## 1
Amino acid sequence: MKFVCSKETILTEIIYSMDFTSQRNSLSITSNVYLETYDDRLIIRATDQKLGFSTEIAVQTLEEGKTTVFCEKLLNILRSLPDTNVIFSVTDGMFAIKPESQSIDFKLRTIAADEFPNLEKPEDAPFFPISQKAFIDMANQTMFAISEDETRYFLCGLYVERNASGINMVATDGRRLSLVERSFEEELPMFPSVIIPTKFFTELKKLGTEEGVMELSIGENLLFAKIGQRTFYTTLIKGQYPNYRRVIPDSQNYSCTMRIQDMLDALKRVSLLVENKAKRIFLDISEAGVLLTSDESEAGEAKEIIPCQYEGPDSKVSLNYTYLLNPLKVMEGEYFSINFTEPTKAMKVKPESNRDYYHIIMPMQPNA
């Protein structure tokens, strides 16, 4: 095996590959990256057995062949090299890395390519095009509400289901819920409702350009995505997602509207003195404004009032401030509203403009 390519070309793909390897055991084949060259192409593959990645780049193939090398070491070596063409070759079980016209020579031990696990293949589910920006934006509006409680593993991912004209994406940890109901102009095929692990979207945001379309294939057990020459997949979370519609209020009597930036700034300041594990703050909602107050602690307390538009009885709400802060960070527009009937029941937080997403927050009980 012998090929030549520019440092930057291969470095970019090895950076992406690194995220799909398993680094818990450097002796494991899944800590390695698979390399195969022929016809002036280099195939690169990586997998941790749950996620997989493959791509192709143009190289100058001098001798066809395939091997695997420890991904982390390869990445660190490539980063250290000058920006020039690099000659890669395999001899006697060693992967040689030598920049052209440089007195630099690295060698890495290899593991035979035949030992590398086969990557998964798409199930009987067709690939279909979808806007990168729209799909990534849906994830941004929901991911923060995913549960971190692994005992409730079915909540540790984003729930995606087909709706009449597009896709719904849902996340909940049992105390809050985020929902996007998006329509698409493209004709989307029917697909089963699935629970997608968080890491898939983390990688999607790294690999995506948020321009143009990508292709998805959604099966019963696997989700594939194609962006240009790169293909990656994840195994899906198995389990029964709860009926999230049951926690969404049908109607609410009161609505308090504020500027998004006013509330964001106030939350950041008042939370500086929040020391309880529950991250509790209080919102006193009245026609005069919304008063934010931290729990009194040894360090002191913080208060701030922001203007609002509200008609209704004075109400005091106790909640985890991050449940409000996280959605506001990604919310579009200038204004948002908190909608409620009772200050201890589910509250709907939504942008004032006609957007296709909103958030449900469960307040804390007064004596919590």
## 2
Amino acid sequence: MSDHKTHMRREVEEIPEAAARLLDGSGAALEAAGRDIAARDPHFLVTVARGSSDHVAAFMKYAVELTAGLAVASVGPSVASIYGAKLRLAGSACLAVSQSGKSPDIVAMAESAKASGALTIALTNTAGSPLATASDHAIDILAGPERSVAATKTFVNSAVAALALMAHATGNTGLLEALKALPSQLEQAIGCDWMALAPALEGDSSLFVLGRGPSAAIAAEAALKFKETCAMHAEAYSAAEVMHGPLALVGPGFPVLTLAARDASEPSLAEAADALAAKGADVFVTSALAKAANQLPHVATGHPLTDPLPLIVSFYAFVEAFARHRGLDPDTPRNLRKVTETL
């Protein structure tokens, strides 16, 4: 395995600094947008995103529904761009997430939402982008240039921005304090060594990644990164759902990564991990509650909504190293490019 440091590795190492830069540099914009959401008192929220950005939106969905009592729905961008349908979104807030802020379908849906009466907020890594211009509030996530095709620091900064936005909207001072502590915890997370996973993945073309609640969104992001960087088929499931139809695929040695945060779902995730291990699966879990599954090192943040984010940082560090272990360059995945502008 080469000692050459990839763009992806450099960008993973930049995550703690990027998160701190976001909280400092865009703090005023996040507070202003949060105050506007509180003033509008929306009846529901909608999100618009694709790919890793949609995983941010799913993470935000759980965070809002668990703490603010508002239902959150993911809106298909093609509703506006392809089908030309007009949604009745008056009385809502719309969160659009896009690294480039240029994808025509995301921009079209944000414009349509604003025209229908929604308060629109954009999370983007490109100030002055079409999406930023189309929205009532534009939050620059300040991740800095990201050269690797696989999004890492932009995912984390978008998720941090989403949590900060919600914290300001709901006056959640505990979450704001937890976010201040997060950059140093993300630094620790980079150092968590998950290479014990590697032997379980050798020769396998498929695996499950499990989560529940906010960590379900993190599991979806991890599964995508396995595909992008390691050319491996990975499927993300809720730990509850995997015990139904997907269980038919689990046999001796089948690899399972279970991403458990320190929240109300942790006992059920540990129980699912142990149940799969009892069926012969090769299960790894980020929880000390598991008895039969292999335990992975993790950083606990002390807050249930920030706790999933160090998990994805530890995973990013692992998956970059594992891609190189497989003889692949995680910076140049087959068939992919950095910006995809869908209609």
